[in-house]
Design brief:
By secondary structure, this protein is α/β, with parallel strands linked by helices. The protein has helices spanning about 35-45, 55, 75-90, 110-115, 120-125, 155, 190-195, 200, 215-225, 250-265, 295-305, and strands at about 1-5, 10-15, 60-70, 95-100, 125-130, 135-140, 150, 160-165, 170, 175, 230-235, 245-250. The two termini are about 20 Å apart.
Length: about 300
């Protein structure tokens, strides 16, 4: 039996003896939207539990648009182009793009160019969050967990924050997307380390597909609520990293709808724990560095027997 695993940019073929009892565990395949550009535009015109994006912006407003870094396969050019088309049609709107690095390294100019495209890279101001520089942050509050909320000061100066990203199951935050664009994306190191400390990450509900009762997700949601006025634009992707759904509007309602969609398609029950599990980290750019590899290991750990 020959199987091709998602690995790097080209995949990793492996061959298994036909005598082995092999189970292939993979998400349900969801076909791509026939016209993703139209899907994003429609979602911005008729968002979930929110006025259209156009109606939230007034002339002269300062708007921050947050986008994912190089470690995420988010279709940034698709989402940013649709958002900027609306913002550019309103007189005097000042737009700043924010690269939500969290505690990751800054992206290179070449990476940014590849992530957002020539036109956006050349004509837009892009700020990369520096989690390690307190001088770039302001204190936005304290969470119910007792952690100080330090967020990027320039983003906080924007009257409207548009959070872009994509939704997938997450090993301890339940799901990606949503408020994670704010925390850890645009947060200071002190806030990120508080949210990611051993007690929080080790909580039994800090796991794949769980939001309610998950202290990681609940604090992310709380921090996002301290960031001011937000509008969400998240997408879902299939194994080919093509857009399968668009969820825009109210942070809570749009993200919940996207999570429900992902839970139905990307999370698969298995009949039993396995003796041996072979997995990857889902291919480029999710396996771009060693730091990210814990996600693949954690997924395998869910379905391997003790001692397997």
């Amino acid at each position: 039996m020959r199987i091709k695993l998602a690995y790097g940019k080209t995949g990793l073929p492996i061959e298994l003896d036909d005598s082995l009892n092999v189970t292939i565990v993979e998400p349900s395949f969801v076909p791509a939207l026939p016209d993703p550009e139209a899907g994003v535009r429609e979602a911005l015109r008729a968002p979930i539990d929110s006025p259209p994006l156009r109606d939230l912006v007034r002339p002269g407003m300062r708007v921050g648009v947050v986008f994912s870094d190089i470690t995420r396969p988010a279709p940034n050019p698709l989402m940013l182009a649709a958002v900027l088309e609306i913002l550019d049609a309103i007189p005097g709107v000042e737009v700043v793009l924010f690269n939500a690095l969290g505690t990751h390294r800054p992206n290179t100019e070449a990476e940014l160019l590849g992530m957002v495209g020539d036109d956006i890279f050349e004509h837009r101001r892009i700020v990369q969050n520096d989690t390690f520089d307190p001088a770039t942050q302001i204190l936005a509050g304290v969470t119910s967990k007792g952690h100080e909320t330090w967020l990027n000061a320039e983003l906080m100066a924007c009257e409207l924050k548009i959070l872009t990203g994509f939704i997938e199951p997450h090993l301890f935050a339940g799901f990606s997307g949503g408020g994670k664009a704010i925390m850890p994306g645009m947060a200071g190191q002190r806030t990120v380390l508080g949210n990611h400390d051993a007690g929080m990450v080790g909580h039994p509900k800090a796991t794949w597909g769980v939001t309610q009762g998950n202290p990681i997700w609940e604090e992310v949601h709380e921090v996002a609520g301290q960031a001011g006025r937000l509008f969400l634009l998240n997408v879902t992707l299939n194994r080919d990293k093509a857009v399968t759904g668009v969820f825009a509007g109210d942070l809570d309602q749009a993200h919940a709808a996207g999570c429900a969609f992902v839970k139905r398609s990307a999370m698969v029950a298995v009949p039993r724990p396995f003796d041996i599990v072979v997995t990857t980290n889902s291919g480029y750019p999710l396996d771009i560095n060693l730091y990210q590899s814990v996600k693949g290991m954690r997924a395998a750990d869910q379905v391997v027997r003790r001692g397997g």
